Amino acid sequence: MNAPLRRVGVVVMVLFGLLFANLNWIQAYKADEYRTSDYNGRVQVAEYDRKRGNIEAGGTALATSKETTGNLKFQRTYPLGAKYAHVLGYKPVNLADQGIERVENDFLAGTSDQLIGDRLKDMFTGDDTGGGNVLLTLSKRAQDVAYDQLSDNKVGAKRGAAIAIDPRTGAIQALVSMPSFNPNPLASHDTNEASAAYNKLEQDPEGPLKNRALSETLPPGSTFKIVVAAAALENGIGKTTQIPAGSSWTPPTSGTPIRNAAASICPERQVTLMEAVTESCNTGFAQLGVRLGAETVKEKARQFGFEQDDLTVGQLGEGGLPTAASRTGDIQNPDGSIDQAALAQSSIGQNNVRMTPLEGALIAGSIANNGSQMRPYLVRQLLAPDRTTSYYTAKARELRQPVEPQVAADLREMMVSVVRNGTGENAAISGYTVGGKTGTAQSAPDRPDHGWFIGFALDKNGNPVSAVCVMLEQAGPGGSAEAARIAGQIMKAAIADPGGR
Amino acid sequence: MTVAATPAPSPATAGEQSGVRLARSRRNAELYLLLLAMALVAAYGATVEANLLDTVTSDFWMPAAALGAVFLGLHLVIRFLAPFADPALLPAVALLNGLGVGFLRRIDLGDAPVAERETLAVFAGQGGRQLAWTLGAVVLAAGLLAIMRDHRSISRYAYTLGLAGIVLVMIPAVLPSSISEINGAKLWVRVGSFSIQPGEFAKLALLVFFAYYLVRKREVLSLASRRFLGIDFPRGRDLGPVVGVWLISVLVLVFEKDLGTSLLYFGMFVVTLYIATERVSWLLIGLVLFFGGAYLAYVLGSTVGGPFANFYVRAEIWLDPFADPTDKGYQLVQGLLALGTGGLFGAGPGGGQPEILPEVQNDFIFAGIGEEIGLFGLSALLVVYLLIVERGLRAALAVRDSFGKLLAGGLAFTLGLQVFVIVGGISKLIPLTGQTTPFLSAGGSSLMANWLLIAVLLRVSDGARRPVTGGGGGKAARPSGGPPEQLHGAPTEVIKP
């Protein structure tokens, strides 16, 4: 019986050899695949084991982590709910993270290479200090006003966006997209609850998850006239130069006449450029655009920041929230020649012109800032877990110079005139010089128009303190006036509490 | 291999024996290995606390010390009652059992609220229960060693044990589900909060019966056979009883949906048959039957369903667990992810998250441990298991009677097969079938049955390593009561030098 016993011994060896080989396969060869599998909750649990840092603005914690008794040790909470949702994003257990939570994830989670010193220190002291803190540029008061005014707008628009920038630095003072959402259920540790909340938002026809301020484009309407006016000023036309106007004008190649918003607007055959801007004269700008030519208009828009695909808003280095590129679109016939009718339409911000609210604020800001466009940013400072060390402090950086200071000064004057005497009166703030441009953009024949306003505020010494863009989607009549009013309110709040730079 | 090369016998053994090489009892080696095993268990406990509590409490050593005391007691019992038993068995099993207790305590700590972790009592939770069960199991093993002074004596109860085995297997099947079903498997007998799995003990009882019957009939089985398809089949009346017992057990288990145990019994039966008859044809027939049966069950499961549907589902999960990773395949997927996350070195004891594995305290304990000790740690555990199995087989090789050979060989192989079935199951080598991981999984029945198995192996190895030339006097002497009775009809084998 010993021979079969020996063979049984060999069989056992073979069986264990198979186990050993298979464990090698799983724990060595396939280990990385399994470790990083979507179904592997361990990575998340480990991630929730260290206290995630705060996201703060102006001394207020906007996103913070609380210790729980559950499996995941820390619960991410957003005390101010929907108000900052589009900036902060959210950090869900099973879904994809968004916003600043995503772009600054490594630092907040404490896994960033920058924090290696702190992690080593923890290892020796045995403390668990958690991740680093991210300080935003947002002004709490401006954000409050922007959120409240936008969600309680007087024209009943359901969708819209507002963004305010410090023109001198590019620091974002307020950023609101409407409708917003409450990020707290999305960060729930109950993944079913989180998924249900996400699906509900995802399927909402109003699209609350969209960041309309940064990543949605709409026809800018008359706000685009500022770009055309800038091109005109650089091409031998002064602010008092008479340009052709009229109550109706038909482009050379198309039978569709361009009219003004009201019969009272520039019915004269000629108006000054200043008057055309102040009253938002469609016929004047349509003819001006055709006269300047498509390339000139497109090039000017490009110099203001149109067509830039890779702009991100976060730190001033790499990374940040992605933005959509604003576009002037094709102004061509099928054969490649310039479509004069389309050019006329584009010159008043229609046809295929599309703009983000961010771009609107950048245009207004660069005009306020003597023609220098600052790179927008949201992250002011990165602080160590114990708040003693700063790992990053934003240093304002010029993005581009769309216009010369003299042209900027002329544009400022015209835009101030819009608020003093023209369509943007609602934006005025006592004690400050406010300039701006309203816009009413047709979306589709059967839908209400979008209301726009881009503008800026200068203090008594002429220093720019805030630049803003407010957009109310399908706001209908009075939309741009309401946008102007809201913009004034936001700038007023930003002046009182400018936020971090 | 020369006598000159072997070290001089230590004084402790020299007094008892007269320089015969086989006669060294190696009890001191057993003691040192046992202390080493307990030191490892204590170190494991300390690492767990360091990782989970961020501090090592002053009583990290208590489970190891409690276990050490129990095992030391068994060591003393072996010293007196089985002085020539294999010295590697007890330390190896003690290491596994100690790590099992340590890991279960680690799960308790992980599940406990952070504030209560440091004050978790040694006898609290699953880890504490396992500690208590270990105490009981070791006492049981010591008791068996005390009662069974010669392994051949249990052959007297072979038929009784065979019957008892069937009854034990069938008890949960005939009891109402309310007291026999846990997690959909009817394997338990529950009385209040106390539950035992009679099937775990049936394994031992049936094996004694198989060994006895096959040894008694081996001449007939090998010789009086009819040739069919080139293979010699024994006469039905010779094989009948043992096939009957086995068939009943397996059928009951199949309908209890305890696939792992039925596979285990099948393997156990085929191997004892092979060892007894020395005919490879039995292995071939067994394998053909097994794979044929498995394939048939798979096909039937996909078409007819019924009792086979469960098997079909398991086979489908095995073929692609990621097809339904959040429901049917969840457990296996999570087990694989745990093993993969552990990688080569593991997250360190207490450093992983084995709590999220369903049934980590039972079927998936090996995956849970693997997450924390990695491939290297698991390989070491496998080697310890292999050591136990091969030591058991070695005892079977060395023991002089056929019954002992078959008994020890069958037990050792069954233990190894059980490890293969469960570890292969959780690592997707073979379809997953529920089994406990010997000495690691939570549960008193499994622990007790496996300790009894070890007691039998210790007893057989004691018989095997006992010097041939007279028992001598003193402690090593054969217990009084005359020479052991010879098994009826069992041929005596001649030891080859």
Keywords:
heterodimer, A: 501 residues, alpha+beta, six-stranded mixed beta sheet, five-stranded antiparallel beta sheet, 18 helices, 19 strands, 37% helix, 18% strand, B: 497 residues, mainly alpha, two-stranded antiparallel sheet, two-stranded antiparallel ribbon, 17 helices, 6 strands, 4% strand, globular, disordered N terminus
Structure commentary:
The complex is a heterodimer of chains A (501) and B (497). Chain A has helices spanning 2-29, 31-35, 41-47, 85-88, 99-103, 105-109, 116-125, 140-151, 191-203, 212-215, 225-233, 273-279, 282-292, 294-304, 340-347, 357-368, 405-421, 479-496, and strands spanning 55-57, 60-67, 74-77, 133-136, 159-165, 172-178, 242-244, 248-249, 258-259, 270-272, 312-313, 321-322, 373-374, 379-383, 390-393, 398-400, 433-441, 450-458, 464-473. The model of chain A has no long low-confidence stretch (mean pLDDT 91). Chain A is an alpha+beta fold. Helix content of chain A is 37%, strand content 18%. In chain A, helix 8 (140-151) packs antiparallel against helix 18, helix 11 packs across helix 13 and helix 12 (273-279) crosses helix 17. The longest helix of chain A is centred in the N-terminal third of the chain and has 28 residues, at 2-29. In chain A, strand 1 and strand 2 (60-67) form a beta hairpin. Chain A contains 18 helices and 19 strands. The radius of gyration of chain A is 28 Å and the shape is elongated. By secondary structure, chain B is mostly helical. The model of chain B is unreliable at 1-20 and 470-490 (pLDDT under 50). Chain B is globular, with a radius of gyration of 23 Å. Chain B has helices at residues 11-14, 27-53, 62-81, 89-111, 114-117, 125-147, 158-174, 177-180, 198-223, 236-255, 259-277, 280-303, 309-319, 330-342, 365-398, 402-426, 444-465; strands at residues 181-182, 185-186, 189-191, 194-196, 225-228, 231-234. Chain B is built from 17 helices and 6 strands. The longest helix of chain B is centred in the last third of the chain and has 34 residues, at 365-398. Chains A and B meet through helix 1, helix 2 and helix 3 of A and helix 11, helix 14, helix 15 and helix 16 of B.
